Amino acid sequence: ACAFAGLWNCVTINPLNIAAGVWMMLNAFVLFLCEAPFCCQFIEFANAVSARAERLRAWQKAAFYCGMAVFPVLLSLTLTTLFGNAIAFATGVLYGLSALGKKGDAISYARIHQQQKQMDEEKLTGSLEGQA
């Protein structure tokens, strides 16, 4: 979607639209290299780029993908750039959510809350005994 929207964005005489379209096509190529290297198996450096991308932490991938997707929108705010970069931005958001970690269950949160409440009560009674 990003590559097709980038190509469509290049069919204009506005230089900012052309720059945004070229950047979108570059985004699509980088996403293919990092996320689906089997699509680029005839490119020699595809496996090296994919291996390097796999070593990145999830929050680093999130920042990279979201930053790549926001730049063309800042260059040329059109529906084509918004819809074309939505998938790349969504990929970054998903990596960001995975960097936050797994959601805890209610039982463990209740235990933590109970322990903190007991500790607060012990501190309060300890300070009251110290004053008396």
Automatic annotation (TrEMBL):
Classification via InterPro entries: TVP18/Ca-channel_flower
TM segment ranges: 22-46, 58-77
Keyword Disulfide bond part of the UniProt annotation: no
Keyword Transmembrane helix carried by entry: yes
Membrane topology: Multi-pass membrane protein
GO cellular component terms, A-Z: endomembrane system; membrane
Pfam short name (any one): Cg6151-P
One Gene Ontology biological process: vesicle-mediated transport
Alphabetically ordered keywords of this record: Membrane, Transmembrane, Transmembrane helix
Location within or outside the cell: Endomembrane system
Family annotation (PANTHER family): CALCIUM CHANNEL FLOWER HOMOLOG
The family this protein is said to belong to: Belongs to the calcium channel flower family.
Protein name per UniProt: FLOWR protein
Gene responsible for this protein: Cacfd1
